[in-house]
Amino acid sequence: MFELMRSIRIDAEHGRASGLASIPADHPLFADHFPGRSLLPGSLILELAAQVAGPLAEEFVKTQLEIERWAILGMVRDARFLQPVFLPVSLEITAAISRSQSSSINANVMVTVNGERVMQAELVMMMLESSTEWADAIEARNARLARWKEAS
Amino acid sequence: MSARDTSAEVATLVRQTLALSETEPIETQQLFFYDLGFTSMDLLDLLFRIEQHFQIEIPEGTIYRLARSDLAEAEFAEDAVLTEAGRQRLMTLLYDTPAELFPARIHATTLPRFCTVGAITRLVDHKLAEKHV
User: Fold this and answer.
1) Which alpha helices (H) appear in chain A, and where do they start and end?
2) Number of compact structural domains in chain B
3) CATH of the domain at A26
4) Whose C-alpha in A97, A114, A117, B44 is 20 to 30 A from the C-alpha of A48?
5) Cβ contact (<8 Å) for A74 and B41?
């Protein structure tokens, strides 16, 4: 669901990032969730938050720890879904690193809609070393991220 | 804080990590990976809970550094695999883990796998003592 992200801004030096996601009401994914009243699933809100926290974690370890790793969502801690999110909607997502190790990065994420907080959680991004099988995925990731950064 | 209190508090955090009932017995000699069915993510979750509960920091590589102690890095491990001297140091640190569980070749990233609940409790006591110095 990378197509839902619109832009991202990363401040690796301070371990912070923000992003915007835009979700239309007529996306086929939500046709039965729910008919006539499209509601963004909590799991997708978490995924969109991870799409901000992941690149932040990757750039953070690259600049601060001087290692190249790729972020995979490993654990969700203390998640709170504070309000239902009806579609269409624009989400503002922020992520701030709270703990860093070479093998994992913790980020506190917060999602707001029109300034109202709708979700908060701590995401643990597992930082993996890449292998040759990842080449296509990394190339796609780099192109995607460049596009999101340009839009911010 | 007494060692007995720490032990009980760590046991509670272990139960919370595994979503076990409060009456589930957790013993100091139990091994996380062998006896309690921990995964690496469970261990990470437990460490986060311990850090938050005791207000201490247990950074990556803590077991490695404690086992190595004053031994030179090159004498402790080669290419991220423990030397025999390193293996002996680890076995001394984790003295309540059955010796037969330590393979001849131990990768440096796998050290927490050999910990008992008691070993982690000792680590917490060690960190608490450091904190209060």
Assistant:
1) 42-64, 135-151
2) 1
3) 3.10.129.10
4) B44
5) yes
Chain B residues bordering chain A (beta-carbon distance below 8 Å): 41, 44-45, 48, 59-60, 109
CA distance A136 to chain B (A): 27
Which residues in chain B are contacts of A74 at CB distance < 8 A? 41, 44
Q: In chain A, which ranges are E strands?
A: 5-11, 16-23, 70-81, 89-100, 104-113, 116-128
Residue closest to B108 by CA, chosen among B71, B72, B133, B83: B83
Residue A99's closest CA among B115, B44, B67? B44
Q: Which of A108-112, A138-142, B1-5, B94-98 has the lowest mean pLDDT?
A: B1-5
CATH number of residue B16's parent domain: 1.10.1200.10
In chain A, which stretches have pLDDT less than 70?
A: none
Nearest residue of A to residue B61, measured between CA atoms: A101
Q: Calculate mean pLDDT across residues B67-85.
A: 96
Token output for B83: 């030397």
Domain of residue B114 covers: 3-131
In a domain, A114, yes or no: yes
The pLDDT value recorded for residue B131 is: 86
Q: Which domain range does residue A59 map to?
A: 2-138
Summarize pLDDT for B43-74 with one digit per residue, the tens.
Answer: 999 999 999 999 999 999 999 999 999 999 99
> Are A77 and B59 in contact (CB < 8 Å)?
no
* pLDDT exceeds 50 at position B3: no
pLDDT, position B30: 98
